[in-house]
Amino acid sequence: MLPAASRSDFNPLVRKLESILSLTDDERQALLDLPMQMALIKEGQDIVREGDRPSRSFAVLSGFTCTYKMTGDGRRQIVKFCIAGDTPDIQSLHLTVLDFSITTLTPCSIGFITHEALWNLCMRHPRLTAAFWRETLVEGAIFREWVLNVGRREAYPRMAHLLCEMLVRLRVVGLADDRGCGLPITQVEFADALGVSTVHVNRVLQEMRADGLIELKGDRLNIPDWERLRQAGDFDPLYLHLRNEQAVA
Amino acid sequence: MTFTLQTVRVANVLNEEGMLVFDKEQQLLAVLTQLGDQYGDLSGYWYLEAGFGRAETRDPPRVGDLDAAQRWIRQRLAGEH
Known about the structure:
The structure holds two protein chains of two kinds.
Chain A: H1 4-10, H2 12-20, H3 25-32, E1 37-41, E2 46-48, E3 56-62, E4 65-70, E5 76-82, E6 101-104, E7 108-114, H4 115-124, H5 126-152, H6 155-172, E8 180-182, H7 187-194, H8 198-210, E9 215-217, E10 220-222, H9 226-232, H10 245-248
Antiparallel strand pairs in A: 1-7, 2-6, 3-7, 4-5, 4-6, 8-10, 9-10
Chain B: E1 4-10, E2 16-22, E3 28-34, E4 46-51, E5 62-63, H1 66-77
Antiparallel strand pairs in B: 1-2, 2-3, 3-4, 4-5
C-alpha cells in the first residue's frame, strides 16, 4: 500500500479541494479515510435524478459526467460538465430534494459517501466544512459565468470559453498536459450545454479548426495557442477562484 | 398552405446552398440550408437556419428533404409546437 502522502496525489477529491484551499496533513488524511462505496457506471446512466432525496453524495473519481435540467417538453440543458474530483450533488447534504439530474457521459468511477460520514467529517474538521462550502460557492460562480456565456456570447466565443474552462479545470486535477486534454464530449452534448444546435456546434468547431485555435482527433483536444483561444473565448479564470492561477493558465 | 421556394447562397463560413421559404403573400418564413459533406453524419440534411414569426425556434430542426421542411413550417404556422 502506498503511503498516505502519495495516495493523495491520486485522489482527485483531495487534489480538487487543495486547488481552492490549503489542507493540513490531518485534513488530507481525513478525506482519504472517508468511507466510500465505489461504483463503476456505464456511460449514459443517470446517477441521480431531479426529485431524488439522496442519503448520500458522491465524488467523481474518473470519467465525465454532466449536471442537467429538462424543460417540461423534454429538452435538455446541460448546466455543468463534472469531472474527476467534483462532488456535484454535495448540496443534498443540506437541501433535501435534488433540483437537477446528473448523468454519465463516459464510463465513470464514482465514490459514494453517506451523508452521515460527511456530517462526521465536517464536525471533526471545520476547515473541511469551509472547503466544501467554498467549493459550492465556486460552483455558483461557474453557473453565473455560464449564464453570461450562454446568454450573451456568440456561438464561437461561447465554445472557446467552454473549452478554456474545461482545460483549466482538467489541469487542476492533473488531467490535462501542456498541449491539451482528453475531452470526450460529443457535439450533441456541446449543443445541450451551449444552447445551440448540433449543426451550429459542428460549424463552430470547423471554424475554430480552420482558424488554428483547436486540433481535434477523436476525444483528444489540442490547443496550439492557449493565448489565442483565451482571447477568442473572452476567458478570465478569476471566477474559478483557484489558489494558484498561474499554475493552470 | 402553399409556399414559394427560392434558391440562395448563404454567406456563412461554408458558403452553403440555401432556400428561402415564402408564404402566399410573399412574406419570408424561413431560411433553410443544405448541409454539405463536411458535416459528416449530418450532411445532406436541410437545416432551419432562421425562422420568422411562428417558425422562430430555439431548437432548429434538420430534416431529410424540402418536403419535410415545409411540413415542419406548416405545423408551426398551425400552432403546433
